[in-house]
Amino acid sequence: MSSHADIREVSRLDKAPVLALGFRPFYLLAAIFAVIALPVWIGSYLGTWAVQGEMTGLVWHMHEMVFGFAPAVMAGFLLTAVRNWTGLPTSTGSALAALAALWIAGRVLIFTGPMPVAAVIDMMFLPALGAAIAVPIWHSRNTRNFKVLAIVAALTLINGLFHLGNLGVLTSTMLTTAPVLALDVIAILLAVMAGRVIPAFTNNAIQGANAHCDVRLDVVAIGSLILIVFLEISSAWWQIPRYVWISVLGVAALSHAVRLALWAPQRTIRQPLLFMLPVAYAWLPIALALGVLAHLGAVPRAIPVHALTIGAMSGLMMAMMMRSALGHSGRGLSAGWAEIAAFVALQLAALVRVLATLLVPGFYRNAVIASGVLWTLAFIVFVIAYWPVLTRPRIDGRPG
After folding, report:
1. In a 10 Å sphere around its CB, with 0-12 CB exposed, 13-18 middle and 19+ buried, how is residue 278 labelled?
2. What percent of the chain has pLDDT over 70?
3. 50 has pLDDT over 90
4. Does any domain span residue 399?
5. If pLDDT is split at 50, 70 and 90, which confidence band does 9 have?
6. Does 396 reside within a domain?
7. Concatenated DSSP letters for 18-39?
8. Where would I find the H helices in the chain?
9. pLDDT at residue 2 greater than cutoff 70
10. N or C: which end of the chain has fewer CB within 10 A?
11. Would you say 78 and 70 are in contact if contact means Cβ atoms under 8 Å apart?
């Protein structure tokens, strides 16, 4: 039987503003983790210190950005968005605290070990998130949202493959294959969500914008990303001809560029908080086009990866974090100095990492450092500016 003290503690958790809705703890945790993790990786890269445990610094960096940072932002977004999509509640209070604690435990154990325990705990988070959003999605009978559950399930499986490779059960190639495969799956999620929100937000904010979607183009754009995932999986067993990669990546790059153009991004330039979304999304076709060049041997393979991770993934995630945090805390959807500074720093991080490496190869080491510093600064600004937004009640007195 629970004691009165236990009941009071649960009650305090349920009433804590930071646990009122999923975006609050997870946006905050993702940003704080970003501020910690990138300097740790840069220090390891420079040889200043070593990342301890059973993962090398590079392997830890790849895993934690793809399976640590990104899922935290996804959790904050999906726990909030699913409530809006379905009209049904998602995790709050003590249930949300438990989910956040599971994510934190995974990050700590991945760093400290023991690795078998870390693998189990880390692999529990995505299924727990999936279960938390599956209940309202199932009860709403909105089949449109089932694809989100499929993406969470795919990331769970890929994370499992990574850990099996790290533990020696599968080949060690999984340590590099799994993060790339997960990034391809995350790219699908970003493309699906962007197609939902960018044209809708643009038309709602700007009269006569005429941002629109073409269903056939969307099928090609999303379908090409799905095909890339299958090519990545197949490449573990067969040598995929170069012309196949170039063709699929080329179609993907072109279709996503045209898709973006149909969303009338030029009409949003006077509204920075909205303009951030198409700017970040533009990195997706850029990354795909750079992938074509990488398969032609014209650029290093790391270039399209970082165009995707820093430019598209981090850019879209930060833009949505800021927009949804403001909206769901009762604030106006306008960008101040903090929002603009954080987003510009992030875009500069992507530009430095991609362009400096391409144009001045001898600057590579400095480009990695400069990009990491800019990325970290972007999230420092976010933490400072959004700590009160995420930890205090809504300013309009409504729940959430």
Report:
1. buried
2. 96
3. no
4. no
5. very low
6. no
7. GGSSTHHHHHHHHHHHHHHHHH
8. 4-15, 23-46, 57-64, 70-86, 93-112, 115-140, 146-166, 174-205, 215-234, 242-262, 272-281, 283-295, 302-306, 315-328, 337-351, 357-359, 364-391
9. no
10. N
11. no
Q: Rounded to an integer, what distance in angstroms lies between the CA atom of residue 45 and that of residue 54? A: 17
Q: Is the pLDDT of residue 118 over 50?
A: yes
Span 340-352, pLDDT tens digits? 999 999 999 999 9
Read off the DSSP letter of residue 141: T
Contacts (Cβ under 8 Å, ≥6 apart) of 326: 273, 332, 333, 334, 389
Residues 213-221: contacts with CB within 8 Å, 24+ apart? 213/259, 213/262, 213/263, 214/259, 214/262, 217/255, 217/258, 217/259, 217/262, 218/259, 220/251, 220/255, 221/191, 221/252, 221/255, 221/256, 221/259
For the CA atoms of 356, 57, 72, 304, the dihedral, rounded to the nearest 10 degrees, stands at 30
311 in any annotated domain: yes
Domain that holds residue 38: 4-391
Number of domains in the chain: 1
Query: Within a domain: residue 400?
Result: no
Q: The CATH number of the domain where 197 resides is what?
A: 1.20.210.10
Predicted pLDDT at 54: 66
